[in-house]
């Protein structure tokens, strides 16, 4: 559940400010809560991101809405000492925690995933975002920036929470995410509102097929997606044309 960028104004800017302040508040307990709420499965989903991205070593990776750096660190290990990972997030609180566990090939910057002013075009082999897309008001701008920053033939990968379709998974989701997560998150973090936001943000997010369409309209090609964990997680990927 990474943070997102500020919006251009109005409701988007107000929502972005709310989300940024929320992530700043819960940053100290964020990784513990992720571990509990996913039963450690988030590490397996990170591994699937690395597989889909096709990382073999030596690549340059841009990790947007990186939060406290869970995926960034796994990416840094995957690309090895000759690779490079840049994690970007708009929550200073999350980045303070991320910078406590660093690698020589890993850098973090405070920034807006929809307006990456300091990131050169065509400079990365892979761009990723995990659990942050639903916090971003302008998804077209997000994926357009990912495409801009990618080298020709580079891959964009998006991991996100979704509402499952199957009856058993929907029943589990209704109990776990709608009821238990806000209660558990509130008890551990002291901020129940922040974890009540999680199920709300998923309900308001676009459907997986619609997200794939946004990626395509943003200039990515060969867009595919798959459901993980009984449909509770979706993994989208697309490539920048050569």
């Amino acid at each position: 559940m990474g943070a997102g960028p500020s919006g251009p104004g109005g409701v988007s800017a107000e929502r972005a400010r709310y989300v940024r302040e929320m992530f700043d508040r819960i940053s100290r307990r964020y990784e513990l809560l992720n571990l509990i709420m996913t039963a450690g499965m988030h590490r397996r989903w990170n591994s699937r991101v690395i597989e889909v991205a096709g990382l073999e070593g030596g690549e340059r990776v841009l990790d947007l809405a990186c939060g406290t750096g869970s995926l960034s660190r796994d990416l840094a290990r995957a690309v090895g000492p000759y690779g490079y990972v840049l994690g970007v997030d708009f929550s200073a609180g999350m980045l303070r925690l991320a910078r406590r566990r660093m690698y020589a090939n890993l850098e973090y910057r405070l920034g807006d995933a929809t307006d990456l002013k300091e990131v050169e075009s065509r400079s990365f082999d892979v761009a990723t975002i995990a659990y942050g897309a639903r916090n971003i008001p302008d998804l077209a701008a997000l994926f357009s920036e990912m495409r801009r920053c990618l080298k020709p033939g580079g891959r964009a990968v998006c991991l996100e929470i979704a509402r499952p379709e199957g009856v058993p998974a929907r029943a589990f989701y209704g109990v776990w995410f709608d009821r238990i997560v806000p209660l558990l998150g509130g008890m551990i973090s002291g901020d129940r509102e922040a974890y009540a936001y999680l199920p709300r943000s998923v309900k308001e997010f676009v459907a997986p097929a619609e997200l794939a369409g946004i990626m395509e309209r943003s200039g990515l090609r060969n867009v595919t997606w798959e459901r993980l964990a009984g449909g509770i997680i979706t993994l989208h990927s697309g490539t920048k044309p050569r």
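DSSP finds nine helices and seven strands in the chain. The longest strand covers residues 150-161.
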